[in-house]
Design goal:
alpha/beta, UDP N-Acetylglucosamine Acyltransferase, domain 1, five-stranded parallel beta sheet, 5 helices, 14 strands
Length: about 190
Amino acid sequence: MFENLRQDSVRYAALGGWFRHPGFWIVAVYRFGTWAHDLPSPLLRWPMWVLYRLARVPFVFFNVHLWAGRRGAKIGPGFCLIHPSNVSIGRFVEIGAGCLIFNDVTLGTGVIGNTPRLGNRVDVYVGARILGGVTIGDDTMVGANCVVTRDVPNSSVVLSAPSRVIPRALSPVARGADEAATAAPTPTASAGH
């Protein structure tokens, strides 16, 4: 636990220090929960687990979902929550060493069964969603607002599709809706009123 915390704190040095960054404390509570769960004696494990649960209460204010323990996430050393708000890391998600996650990120189940596995030194930017049993390779960057549902090889950059504006007439869906609206009979007033 302490070696992982030391490596986590190094990542926060450039952000003004670990002691002032809420992301570090959220990860520290997670590390404590993992340590408490692995204690050999139930006489120690249960009080520490209760303490972990109480320490998680401030997570509510940041809307960070990150669970430790047997069914929790598995996170390597050097983990950094750069802006810890609206982050959801599902149960059984595996995250390698030296990973960086921004705000509004979801790592969880999807159409493909299981949960994501992130390699080492993976950066996941604002609003990204990594869903299902996909593997993200080492040294990969997942861009803002990307939805990843397939495996990504090592040393890759995942970018979301650029927005384009096209005329409504070029969209088959919009054109069909427009045609259906013009073909529909208009209601008429009844003569008995």
